[in-house]
Amino acid sequence: MGRHFEKLVKKFMEQIKLLINTLGAPLKDKETLRQTSLFLIKITLIPLILFWFAYLTNFILLRQAISLYLIFFLPGYLLTPIFFSKADKTEKFVLSYIISVFIVPLAGYLLALKGFSFNELSALLSLHLLIIILSIFFVISKSFTKNDESEIKRESFLSLFIVLGFFVVLMSILLKIYPFLPEADPYYFYPVIENLINTGIHPQIFYRPFFSFFIGYICLVGNFSIWIVMKYILAFLPIFPLAIFWEYARKKSSNYSIRIIFPLLFLSVPALFIGAEVIIPQIFFVSIFPICLYFLHKAIRGKLFMPWVLVFALSFLSVKYHELGLFLIAISAFSFPFVIKIKWRNIKLPGIVLGLILTFVFLGAAMEFARSVLKVAVDFFDLFGKDFIFKPWFLNNFTNIDNVTQSWSGIEVIKYYAYLVGSVLPIVLILGFSRTVLKKILRFEYIPFWVSFILFFLIAEVFPRFNTNFLPDRAWLFVTITLIFFSLPFLEKIVSQTPQKIFAFSIIILFLISFGGSFYLAYAKQGYVSQEEYAAAEYLKNNTPENSVIVSQQGNTVLINFFGKRTMFFYKPIFYVMDSVRSQDLDALKEAINEFNKKNLPVDTPVYILYSFDKNKNLASQ
Fold first, then answer.
1. What are phi and psi of 568, to 5 degrees?
2. Which of these, 114, 159, 455, 460, has the minimum number of CB atoms within 10 Å of its CB?
3. Which tens digits make up the pLDDT trace of 154-172?
4. Continuous H helices in 498-530
5. Partners of residue 399 on adjacent β-strands
6. Sign of torsion, CA 65 129 37 82?
7. How many whole angstroms separate alpha carbon 438 and alpha carbon 490?
């Protein structure tokens, strides 16, 4: 027995020694270490030196430019060789982004949990420490991998630059149309971020904290204002999904025009294009979701385990941006059996069963990981406790989980779906449909897309018909993203069977209609604050006492609280405004004042009335 044990110990020690020698061999390769070190100096040390030069000399523009590189790209790029050593340049570009937007705010979040204040010093130190640690991982991982990435000829990037340039021009015009943050939700998170930066303490640490911490890093490290980040910088996040759609088309099709048209399908959907201007936590999830689907698809197609591990790990962190991350966990978990090497005859039933088991297991684990997720998940399942009512047509009247009642009827229904799906994508799917095309998208490598489509379509169209309204309109965003991936073989069929001139003319007209509709919607919505209302808010801020209370419509919360810096009071029934003041509006106003008088406020509190005629003149009216 003793001799047998000694043999086992000896064999184990031999294996350990062999492992050490194996791990140490690449590090002894001086040429590899030299090349890696020089490259690391170029991408890390030189930018850091330039950053501190700009910081110490107060060279603001240089500091801002370098800080965006240090926050958005460098941390993720340093980890890319670990998860995907054979990634090409476009894949490295998007991988750098999605890894960075998770691990950078994670650093701030962990500091906050440990009781450290989040300020400029802690942001700079934590970011630099993160870069140093990741640089070590980068050197080690590069020592074990050969530089065998698939290079693309420089001229082949022209179509990508055309797509990205077109988007930058369109978004710049869109930002010019409306000078404020559109809709009300961004103004909810604005004071949260402001509080985090000014006090160093996150007031809602367990509610979508990564959104605030990431913006906090950009502001503190780059010396940006919150307004610049939320109004302008983050509006260009669609650059990353556009890049991955281009890469998907490049890998699947050799047709040059398809490489341009296919990514533009993403921009042709008004909800995705003008929705990028509404800076809320969801925009980060929208920007990373198609990238994660792409790498899950690639992992299954090439039986690549590490890209799946990356997406699966990031999906857990994504719930710290938005609870929609639960669905990404489910999609990743369900994809796992198709990534590992299982025989085709066994993958059908066992694979699906294992996928379902992993889905429920990791959904539960995610709820334990993120406290904020639990409440949302419970609220979602509580919806099933409502009275069972089958409504074949629910759009005429439904209330979602946010207690927002929506009603769409007649021609408005067409506008509803046109906003969420666009005009180009449905035509591509209809005209390009055939049995051959259908067979292509029924392959196992499309499993992530199918799981995504089924999950979000259930929320968008099936559950609401049984009186279970989660967020059907938001679910359609992710149904549409999935349909874009499906549409590539449909688009290829149309291009191959349509005369070139007819196709070019038709596609240009369709895109013009789509983008024209987006700009019309952006102009018609005009956010929650018009130019006249903003002037009124400035007047209140400059000409009324700071302790003033303003009685107004519910839709004027942003106008009065954020821009006017005054306290607002409203009372239901909310009084609406058209072109003139009606008697019922005056009655509602008197009722609101009577209710206000019942409040225990100091007798000398100044009270003003703000009565906006603009509230029903835009699509975002209350």
1. -110, 145
2. 114
3. 547 889 999 999 999 999 9
4. 500-525
5. 405
6. negative
7. 9
